Structures are given as C-alpha cells and as structure tokens.
Amino acid sequence: MTMLKAVTIIMFAILSLSQIPVREIPDREYLISGQNTVQKIYYQTSSRYSRIHSGRMAMDSDRDTSWISEKSVGPHWIEIDFGIKRLMSSIIVHVGRKNNYRTVRTFTLQFLHQGVWFDFATVNCERRSFFGTRYNDTITIDLGGVDASTFRIYIPPGGTYNGYAAISEIEAYVGTGRIRYYDERLKGLCFPIENGYLPEADESYPNAPRKYRGGRHVGLDIYYYHKDNSYDPLPVTKDTPVLAADDGEVIRVDRDYKALTVSEWKAQSQYYQNNPHTFDARSFGGRQVWIDHKNGVVTTYNHLSRIASGIRKGSSVSKGERIGWVGNSGLLGEAEGRQYGTHLHFEIWVDSYYLGCGMALPEIKNYLTWIFFPMQ
Ligand SMILES: [Zn+2]
User: Fold this and answer.
1) How far is the CA of 187 from the centre of ligand 1 (A)?
2) 10 Å Cβ neighbour count for 58?
3) How far, in Å, is the centroid of ligand 1 from the Cα of 202?
4) pLDDT in tens, 190-203
5) How far does residue 273's CA lie from ligand 1's centre (Å)?
6) Quick check: helix, strand or coil at residue 179?
7) Predicted confidence (pLDDT) per residue in 149-205, tens digit
8) Coil, strand, or helix at residue 351?
9) From CA 304, how far away is CA 283, in angstroms rounded?
10) 46-55 contact pairs (CB < 8 A, 24+)
C-alpha cells in the first residue's frame, strides 16, 4: 500500500467517525439507550415535584414511578429529544397519580416542527358515555408513521384536576418495537459489594486505558464499602462477600485456580505491554466467577480469594447471593504472597460488549449510577 493510500484511508475513517450525528446539549438531563452507544436521549420537564419524581421516571419502564410536576395552574410539559430523527408509529402515555388521585384531565402530543411546537393530537382522558364518565389511564396515540426527533406531552393550563401533572410512562414504538430509552436489562442490578462505593479514581472505571488486558480496562474496580450505621469508607478485605448482580447461571468457576509466581507474573505483564490483544491462558483476573443472566447480559467477578461452596459451573444463583469473597488473585500482590491490591474487579457484558465500550467517562459514571443507585 502506498503512503498516500494509507493516509487517504485513515482520513476517510476519521471523517466517517466525525459524521456520526451526535448532538450534545450541555446541562440537559439525558439517558443513554444502550451499553455501547454515545447517542443520548435528552429530556426536560416544566418542573418536578421532587428528585424522585424527575422526568426519568416517565422513561424508566416502571409504571409504579412517575414524573410529577410542581403544583401550578400550568402549563406542564415533559419533552423527549432523541437527538436524531427516529421513526415512530405510536406513542402510549400512561397517566400517573399523585397520592392516588388522578392528575391529568387532558393533554396534547406535540412534535417540534421547524422550531415551533406542532399540535399532533389532543387527548381527553375522561370519556363520557351513557353510563357516565370513565377515566382512561392508558392512552394510545396512533401516529400513522412519523419521522421526528423531538416530542412532548403538553398539559395546558387547567388541564389537571388539582394542579399536579403525573405521567408514569411514555412509550414510543416503531411498529411493535418499543424505542428503548435505556437498557432495562441493567436496571436495578445488585451492586456486587454490599454498601459498596463507586470508585473515586478514573482508572477504576471501564474504558480506562491499560497497557495490558486488551489495552483497556473493561470492568469496574471496587475498593471501598461502608457499614450500615456509617458512611465512612472502609477498604474491602478478603472477608468481604461478593454478591451476584442478578439471577443467573454460573458459566465459569475457577476452582482449580493456581497463582502465578512473581517471575511468571512479570513475564506475562511484560508480554502484554506490547501484545495486548490475545488469548489469556492465565489472566490477570485471577480466580473468577462468571454469571450468565440469560438476557444477553453476563457479569464477571475477578481477583476473588475464595469461591462460596455450592457455586459450580451450571449452578443457578439468585440476585444478591454470595458467590465468593474479595481478594487479589491474579495481581502482583498475590504472586508476592502479600495482601495489597485487594479489590473486586467487576465486569458487565451486554450483547458481547463490555458496559462502557465507546462511552466517555462521565457517561459511564452516570450510567452506573442509574443502574445501581437509581434514586440518586
Ligand atoms: Zn480492574
């Protein structure tokens, strides 16, 4: 290949990447739709009654939680901006309640059209008939087929019963396929260390550069936890239990694990500095357990000091079940017969990609917080 050709191909690759239509809206709240995308879905509301009634609650696939606005005559609104055009054929709005009282009497679905809100459909949640007034909590709006990036549910002044607007879910579909705001499979996973903390250091997150392990750190390193009666961070030790993130089947258990010697460890480390992309016969992950959650999600638990009895390949485990204990297996500390480096390296693999692949660090931190601490 000539130099010019190579340069042209590299230029083309850079240009193609830069053409991915990612629109950044600073200071706007957002969700990330998958594990391996930088495409954010932004949302905004006219107001929120409290932190746990934010707009996200209308997008979290949980009808028990709602976006609730502050009390006012209105208008109230919640806007969803995909940041990119999407095809949509229907939108389903699940109207919510506040203290078990109905809130929304009427609303309008609007699309942003040339910078101005376009009224697409106005819905009356009350349905009067010969038998009296009935209330519709679930409203399906057939769009016929639209191509749009931004829509909102607009509740006009006086459109509520008591000044609050509550919406428990807004679902958008193309055909029978629901547009995912974020990956529900990951929602509410159990943090693998009880009262564990997300790490402080950037290098403890997925995607942090590493000269070994494929050139990237692909997991989350957990070093600290707190006791029930205090938030003081305490370091994890070899007696800290490791918990299954979700129900699943054990697909790897290193019961016959043998530690590397110091010279083996150093030789392997040296090799991987220059050759990160290869098969690992004895990886730096040390003693591991892998769990298949049967929905495209696999989690792995690395550097364990021990594995709980009864955890075998093929075992079923439950969310929160103890599968082993933290350690420093696979690390230089273990090879040297010392304790340093003890932590849990925890990986989440989604549809064969590690969680965080292709994402920037602030997004990864946000995403992990949504997954494990959704009310924060
Ligand atoms: Zn790690």
Assistant:
1) 22
2) 28
3) 11
4) 999 999 999 999 99
5) 16
6) coil
7) 999 999 999 999 999 999 999 999 999 999 888 888 888 899 999 999 999 999 999
8) coil
9) 13
10) 46/75, 46/76, 46/77, 46/78, 47/72, 47/76, 49/98, 49/164, 51/375, 52/375, 53/166, 54/29, 55/29
> What's the 190 CA to ligand 1 centre distance in angstroms?
18
Centroid of ligand 1 to alpha carbon of 364 (angstroms): 15
Rounded-to-integer distance, Cα 195 and Cα 141, Å: 43
344 CA from centroid of ligand 1 (Å): 7
Residue 94 C-alpha to ligand 1 middle, in angstroms? 41
Q: Which residues, other chains included, contact 65 with Cβ-Cβ below 8 Å and sequence gap of 6+?
A: 52, 53, 57, 168
The domains located in the chain, with CATH, are 26-182 (2.60.120.260), 202-372 (2.70.70.10)
pLDDT in tens, 14-62: 444 444 456 678 888 888 765 545 578 999 999 999 989 999 999 988 8
Q: How far is the CA of 227 from the centre of ligand 1 (A)?
A: 23
Q: Report residue 73 as tokens.
A: 């005559």
Residue 363 CA, ligand 1 centroid: distance in Å: 18
Q: Is the pTM of this model over 0.85?
A: no
The answer to whether the beta carbons of residues 202 and 208 sit under 8 Å apart is yes
Close Cβ partners of 330 (under 8 Å, ≥ 6 residues apart): 259, 260, 283, 284, 285, 286, 287, 302, 303
User: Whole-angstrom distance between the N-terminal and C-terminal Cα of the chain?
Assistant: 53
Among the listed residues 372, 35, 311, the one whose alpha carbon sits nearest the alpha carbon of residue 180 = 35
